[in-house]
């Protein structure tokens, strides 16, 4: 059986990319809700409806687990999804825990970037309240990065001015870690590095999510010997057009280039 991946758009591809490194022999369904992206600026109940419809579609394809490869969707609907289905539903949350735990210099701060909706949701607020005893965490929404990535806009001359303007709201000399709390943001790790000092850690929750998936499948004795095949769906429609498939290939290449440059 396949593993389902869901995201509002192409952000979850960054999680799938890391998953393929450690589970190369599984087969996958990747569902991008391209009709309704972005989720961040939309009302919670509207977004929840999109998520429930999408995951219902994925479940009907006969999958053994679903990864909600979207921090916003996890914040909005993970409890309801887990209550509804009897297969593993694996969510994501911004990597606040490792960022705070590894923040050894209490004079330094942690900047958590995410979508507007993730930042407003109780799930993230509760996580920060639980972990941030020294009150070192600041929050920054970066909706422009979702728009850029969905348009496959990765040119420095376009994206760097936006990032520079947004980060200028904080004195970056005071920060030790930047958390990329939206899977779309991971396409821009290299650009974040160009704008901060070398000691600043830039982290996301992607690899941790992939490892969690592997652990769960191992416990279920459900690891497959497949081919690493991926079927892509855009808002419930299987992607078969060569141009659209090339778009996904371009995203994998972008992630490969970032990985090689690290």
TrEMBL record:
Under which pathway is this protein filed?
Answer: Cell wall biogenesis; peptidoglycan biosynthesis
Its EC number(s): 5.1.1.3
As one GO molecular function, the record gives: glutamate racemase activity
Domain of life assignment: Bacteria
Going by the UniProt record, its keywords in alphabetical order are: Cell shape, Cell wall biogenesis/degradation, Isomerase, Peptidoglycan synthesis
Which reactions are catalysed by this chain?
L-glutamate = D-glutamate
Q: Where is the active site?
A: 70 (proton donor/acceptor), 182 (proton donor/acceptor)
Q: Fetch the SUPFAM superfamilies from UniProt.
A: Aspartate/glutamate racemase
UniProt record, GO biological process: cell wall organization; peptidoglycan biosynthetic process; regulation of cell shape
| Residues reported to bind substrate | 7-8, 39-40, 71-72, 183-184
Q: Into which EC class is this enzyme placed?
A: isomerase
Matching entries from InterPro entries are given as:
Asp/Glu/hydantoin_racemase, Asp/Glu_race, Asp/Glu_racemase_AS_1, Glu_race
Concerning NCBIfam families, the annotation shows: glut_race
Q: Name the family.
A: Belongs to the aspartate/glutamate racemases family.
Record-linked PANTHER family: GLUTAMATE RACEMASE
Function, as annotated? Provides the (R)-glutamate required for cell wall biosynthesis.
- Protein name (record): Glutamate racemase
